[in-house]
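INTERNAL AUDIT FORM
Audit reference: QA-55
Scope: verify that the stored structure record matches its stored sequence.
Auditor: D.O.
Record contents follow.
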Amino acid sequence: MSGKHVIDIGCGDGSLLVDIIQGTPSTVTLIDSSERFLQIARENESLQVLNPTYICTNGFHYKWKNPSLVLMIGVLDYSQNWINDLNDLLVQEFSGKLIFSLPVKDNWSFRFIIRRLWLRLWGIKLQSCTYSDLNKLMHQVEVKFLAVRCEYDWIINVEDIY
């Protein structure tokens, strides 16, 4: 990622970004709707070498400028309408990669059920999808993608959207 522009939407403490990127990007933008998580990210010593910009906003509505990588892991899980939110992101112009995740539909593992119940207590419906749902959406927005099932989640890679 040396010399590239990287955006992490829903960055949390930033540790996932540190684990994924190789090299030193020219710019790093960390976006989270929680100022608390951004403060934790600011204190993450592994991130400080990247000199990131921290933005507290809803990442679905952030307008980026041609990044090389947009990382969005665990964000669409909590969206009220993940199809619309993902569509809003996919219509933006960039020539890099978008990597995001969605929970696998009909996952009845103990961990997933507990997570779903915990979120329901907070009034949040956990989103999930089948491969067919995902395939239908990607064909609607005319992008090619690669989806890999990793136990509880789909990890989706979209390249060269525009």
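Auditor finding: record pair retrieved intact. The first strand starts at residue 5 and ends at 9.
Action required: none
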